[in-house]
Design brief:
single chain, alpha/beta, Arginase, Chain A, 10 helices, 8 strands
Length: about 325
Amino acid sequence: MKKTLRIIKNRSDIGAGTRGADIGIDAMEIAAINAENDFFNRTAFIDVKTHNESIYNKVQNSSAKRINFVVEQCQRVAEAVKKTLEKEEFPLVLSGDHSSALGTIAGIKTKNPTQRLGVVWIDAHADLHTPYTSPSGNIHGMPLAAAMQEDNIKMKSNTPDKDTLKAWESLKTIGINNPKFETQNLVYFGVRDTETAEDTLINSNHIKNYSVPEIRFRGIEKCVNEAIEKLADCDAIYITFDVDSLDCDYVSSGTGTPVPLGFTPNEVKTIISAFLKTNKVIATEFTEINPLLDNKGNLMAETAFDILHHCFG
């Protein structure tokens, strides 16, 4: 059944290390206007309230910065996603930083707690850090660990205080107090910038990462079809696209943590479109566009909108 698209605009960037992703959605809308495309005018949307003003507060939780506000933000996103699904609509989440993915996943599971969820994570980063392991304390590097309810204490390098750990428990239990998906139902595309603590979880859980070199060597269609088959037993699939999965030298540096040797825009279009054709995709997210860091005008937002319109226009 074809569903009505509803955009969920989450302009929060408090989980990132650099300001500017909060206007990434606006930059995509400007890209659409400049392309004389009325996509945003003809698509219903929800604006999610943010805590962006908290970025000016003194950081109290250095191993998980502004975590109390991130918990509230993810709760808001989860509620918006759940309500959208309850209306039999398709949530297209546009977010500032990637910490909101925990909220999106929680919203999906709150609406469908018994469904087996597959997660397609298109990103340069694994986002598997925790307050115990994060070298930066930025929570946009932690959403998958929170969704898996994984602390990774054996790779501990930080000693979080009790308030941080209390908030971390709240983050992990948004929606339902269980892991939101099984690790065998997580598939990475393009991950290439990780730390040892994350690599340990990837290896111990046998999480598949389709790297850029593998996809180009074996062929993108073969790899994507293999990933679709891997998730064949899932009832629903969530796709998240972090623009830093793109090659920052080929596209632009308009994201908080750009990494070279990434995907081309056409490769990302192929990956997302192939999963959409399975009719199992229940929600999609576009994230981490930072026009303040773009060295080529507004090219990252223009590229992200081009991918979005190709897949959903």
